[in-house]
Every structure is written in structure tokens, then in C-alpha cells.
Amino acid sequence: MLLDSDTQLNQNSYYEASVSRPPALPPLQGEVNADVLVVGAGFAGLSAAIELAKRGYQVVLLMQSVDLIDQRIREFDIDCDWVKGYMYVADSPRKARALEADCQAMQRDYGFSHEFVTGTQVQNYIQSPRYCAAAFETNSGHLHPLKFGLGLARAAQSLGVRIFENSAVTGLTRGAVVHARTAQGVVHAQFAVLAGNCTLPEYGPQVAPELTPRIMPVGTYMISTAALSADLCRQLIPSNAAACDNNFVLDYFRFSADHRMLFGGRVSYSTRTPANLKAVMAQRMGAIFPQLKDVPVEHVWGGFVDISMNRAPDFGRIGGNVIYLQGFSGHGVALTGLAGQLAAQALAGQAERFDVFAKLQHHNFPGGAVLRTPSLVLGMLYHRLKDLL
Fold first, then answer.
1. How many of the other CB atoms lie within 10 Å of CB of 171?
2. Residues 6+ apart with CB under 8 A from 244
3. Do the Cβ atoms of 162 and 36 come closer than 8 Å?
4. 9-44 per-position pLDDT tens digit
5. Strand pairing class (59-62; 30-39)
6. Distance CA 106, CA 110 (A)
7. What are the sequence ranges of the domains in the chain?
């Protein structure tokens, strides 16, 4: 089961180890009425709940964009180690040309600027022998996602949102009123927002069967080192920015507030955890930063993201009163906040921006329930080979 695998992968997470969680909220019991039901308490579900509650809706939440992130952190005083600064890096001349073209397109089409550098200037941004080009910008940033998520949950509760943990939806009956069943209760609501992403199929075949073929769960993995000296952190990434390369199967990394290297990479398209994960990830990190080759790795963890065929977010409606938000394809921290805001606007009758995303064309992954995972694995192997060229 995907949810069980996700829970096991996160048991040794740095994020879990660095936060004291509040006591779990009680599960749903009995019957509850609400204006809006939100299924899924990730960033998208919590953001939708906050926006709806601010508009005066009674919201029940069931759980098993960058400027907007900044706004939420300030508005609700969320302590989540928020740091501005992000860079893309390239490890070959071909990829450097592609990165420069992307920067030019972002400036030309959207007015979004990067500082693009090559050659020896790259060392001013990142001390690594791997990269020959970098694109730096200060509009984006990085944060502690668990602290941010817990802060959003507190904000939602302060606005009157009722959150029930350990209350997975087992069935959803659509109509003029939406009825969501759990193991111990039922919610009756005028509207529903489905924000469970790749875990929605785990809730049962009756929740949203038409959405399942349009996304795939992809495992992504991270390690964290022991605490490093502040001087070494400043030497390796002087700006303290987060970074990722522009490969198809990418590496991404940053320093935590307590000076650990948080390094991510390696993916699994079969939902199986790769073998020798700690050693493989440490080797990848050491190839980028030889200075960290012998630093102890203290945490190894992972989780699943949902990807769509075209890597664009998949938002839309089922009937007149059910909205779904999925397909964030690895860009969830920024996009989920916007998704929640757009869902709330759509339910409040202001659907113009939501409909821009709803008009994007999405297709099912090929191969059906049996062959779509093997088909995807073959396709990803092709792109991985291209990364190595």
C-alpha cells in the first residue's frame, strides 16, 4: 500500500526528528455537516481550507506560489526556517545552453529574471567541480516543510476549520450534497475539494476513479548529514540558496537552519524503495561536494509525489460541486498554495484563474492499471540515459 510505504519511508526523516508534533487530533466519529469538505491535509488541502474559512465557509478537513508562501508565513507568524534564494545548475555545456535558453524565455515571456553565470563565476555561487553554469534568483527560496505544514494546520484551526486525523475517506457519494464516508463517520457537505493527490486511490475505488489514471506516484528520496560548521556551509553555497540541476532525473540540495546538508535525488517509478539508498545517495552527494565525502549521514527518508503526463498541474471539476487538485509534479510547495486559493475562489464564484488551469489538456498514462508502471519505467530509463550524455 502506498500510504504504508510513505509512512515507513518517513520514519527516519530529518524533518520529523527536528520537530515536536502536537498530539494527534481525534478521528471523525458520527455525522457532521459542513459547507465544504476537504479531503487531504497536505499543503493544497490546508491552503484551500484556510481560504474558504476566511470567506466564511464552514470547513471540515479529513486527512490520512512563492509570494503566497511569503504572505502566509507573515500573516500567521509561521516559524519554518524560510530563506530566500534559489539556483539552477548545469553539469555540461549542452545543459548550460539549455539553462540559458530557459532563463531567456522566462525573462522574455514572464519578466522573471535570473543571474546567469558560466565558467569560473559559478564558484561564486556554488563550490563544486560538477557544474559549469548556474542561474540564481531571489524570488524563490526554501523552508522546513513539516514546520510549514503544521503552521498551516494551526492557522486553519484558528479560523474555525475542523480537522479530523486518521479519517481516511472510504467512499464518496456525489450529488446536490456530497456524502463522504470514513470508518467511523460521515460528512455531508455542499462542496468537496479532493486534495489527496497520489494517495486518493488508497482511499478506495469509489472516491475518484476517473482521476487515478491521470497521475502516477513517483518515489523521491533524501539524506541529511550530521551538523556542519557554519563556515563550511557558507564556503559551499555562499548565498545559502537551495539548488537543483536541470537533468531529467535531478539532484537537489540545500542547507538546513542547523547547518546540515539536505540532499535529494534518485527516484523510483515502481513505488519500491531503491536498494542501498543511504550509500548511493551519499555517493551522489560526495561527487558534487567532495568536501562532504566523509561526513556522516544521519537521516535517510523519502516519499511520493504525483506526476502528470505533461508535468503540468491537473485541476478541475467533477460535476458542479467537487473540485480536484493534483499533478503537482514535484513543484508542490509553491503550487499547492496557489491551488488552494484558486479552489476557494472557484467555489465562491470567482473561477477565472481556476479555469485557466482547468483548460489544460491532460491524458491518462498509457498501459492501464497493469502496464502503466512498466511503461513509465522504460520511458524514464531513456531520459536517464540522455542525462548522462
1. 14
2. 88, 89, 250, 251, 252, 253
3. no
4. 677 899 999 999 999 999 999 999 999 999 998 899
5. parallel
6. 5
7. 19-79+145-214+310-366, 83-142+227-295
Q: Say how many C-beta atoms besides its own lie within 10 A of residue 272's C-beta.
A: 9
Contact 250/329 with Cβ under 8 angstroms?
no
Please name the amino acid found at residue 10.
Answer: N
Q: Of 41-50, 56-65, 345-354, which one has max mean pLDDT? A: 41-50
Show the cell assigned to 60: 471540515
Hey, what CATH topology would domain 83-142+227-295 get?
D-Amino Acid Oxidase; Chain A, domain 2 (3.30.9)
Q: Which three cell numbers stand for residue 116?
A: 546567469
CATH number of 19-79+145-214+310-366: 3.50.50.60
**Closest listed residue to residue 92, CA positions, set 84, 80, 82, 100:** 100
66 contacts 90 by C-beta, under 8 angstroms: no
What is the mean predicted confidence (pLDDT) over 210-214?
80
Dihedral through CA 64, CA 188, CA 328, CA 260, nearest 10? -30
The CA–CA distances, whole Å, from 164 to 27, 195, 298, 326 equal 5, 15, 33, 21
Q: Round to whole Å and give the CA distance between 78 and 311.
A: 30
Amino acid (one-letter) located at 296: P
Question: pTM for the whole thing?
Answer: 0.88
Q: Pull the grid cell for residue 34.
A: 459542513
> Cell 555545456 appears where?
93
318 in Cβ contact with 174 (< 8 Å): yes
Q: How far apart are CA 105 and CA 119, in angstroms?
A: 22
| Non-local CB neighbours of 26 within 8 Å, separated by 6+ positions | 164, 165
Of 142, 131, 136, give the one whose Cα is nearest residue 288.
131
By the 8 A CB rule, do 39 and 192 touch? yes
Single-letter amino acid, residue 283: Q
